[in-house]
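Renewal narrative, Specific Aim 1. Our central claim is that a sequence can be written position by position from structural information alone. The example that follows is taken directly from our test logs and has not been curated for this report. It begins with the structure tokens describing the chain, in the order in which they were read.
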């Protein structure tokens, strides 16, 4: 992998990971358009370690408080009545579905699901899901009113993000809005749900990303992988702050329009033969 490819893909990952536009779709499209090959699911998973490090730092106080409360609550009955204790369990239970499916379907996720016809179609279809979630969701419940069922439902929604084009944040935020959570509440739960799933995926994929590549799809060096991950971390941290501020004051229709436009352009390029689907 060239250094310019490594840097560009790191930038793309950092800018798109937390927006409901699908970072995996953007990495797949960017790789095909500018570098004529797919960097691969393992590259995506490892660079996500950088963006998840940004989540860990940005929400460090919240994560520490929730984790400490959960540990204490395991043996202290009064602590179990607190929202932080329940929220920790929502994240744990909500992570199980994607963990199981990610492991069982890892070969399909790394190969068949990365077909650009699928990516283009999913970008548009889930733009409509996002639009209906914004339109129909009551958006009345703050984070403190999140329930056990919310964690399970959003966790199931997160499973859809195994398909490039869905978007992890898009799926979980949509689920949260359909459940009546406020945008900022759904977004915060989305960030928390992603932490264990993305960290596990990135660590699991570390050995694979350095496997020997081919002339058509060269593998990154450890130094290149490190640079891409650091770039993703820096830009990811900035995008977290921007997104939380945006959803607190605006609708998410801008992401709907963007997804439809991108999916439409991609379908056109595939139809005319300007891009290869695999």
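The sequence written for that structure reads:
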């Amino acid at each position: 992998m060239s250094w310019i490819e490594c840097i560009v893909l790191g930038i793309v990952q950092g800018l798109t990971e937390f927006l409901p536009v699908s970072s995996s779709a953007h990495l797949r499209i960017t790789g095909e358009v500018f570098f004529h090959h797919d960097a691969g699911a393992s590259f995506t998973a490892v660079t996500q370690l950088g963006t998840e490090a940004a989540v860990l730092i940005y929400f460090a106080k919240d994560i520490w408080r929730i984790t400490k409360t959960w540990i204490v609550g395991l043996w202290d009955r009064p602590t179990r009545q607190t929202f932080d204790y329940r929220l920790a369990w929502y994240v744990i239970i909500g992570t199980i579905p994607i963990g199981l499916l990610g492991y069982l379907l890892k070969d399909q996720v790394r190969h068949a699901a990365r077909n650009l016809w699928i990516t283009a179609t999913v970008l548009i279809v889930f733009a409509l899901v996002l639009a209906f979630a914004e339109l129909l969701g009551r958006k009345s419940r703050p984070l403190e009113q999140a329930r056990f069922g919310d964690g399970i439902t959003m966790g199931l929604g997160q499973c859809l993000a195994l398909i490039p084009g869905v978007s992890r944040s898009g799926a979980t935020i949509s689920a949260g809005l359909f459940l009546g959570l406020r945008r900022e509440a759904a977004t915060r739960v989305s960030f928390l749900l992603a932490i264990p799933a993305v960290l596990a995926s990135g660590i699991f994929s570390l050995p694979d990303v350095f496997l020997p590549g081919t002339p058509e799809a060269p593998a990154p060096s450890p130094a290149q992988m490190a640079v891409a991950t650091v770039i993703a971390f820096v830009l990811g941290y900035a995008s977290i702050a921007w997104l939380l501020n945006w959803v607190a004051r605006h609708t998410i229709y801008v992401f709907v329009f963007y997804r439809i436009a991108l999916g439409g352009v991609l379908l056109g390029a595939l139809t005319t033969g300007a891009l290869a689907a695999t």
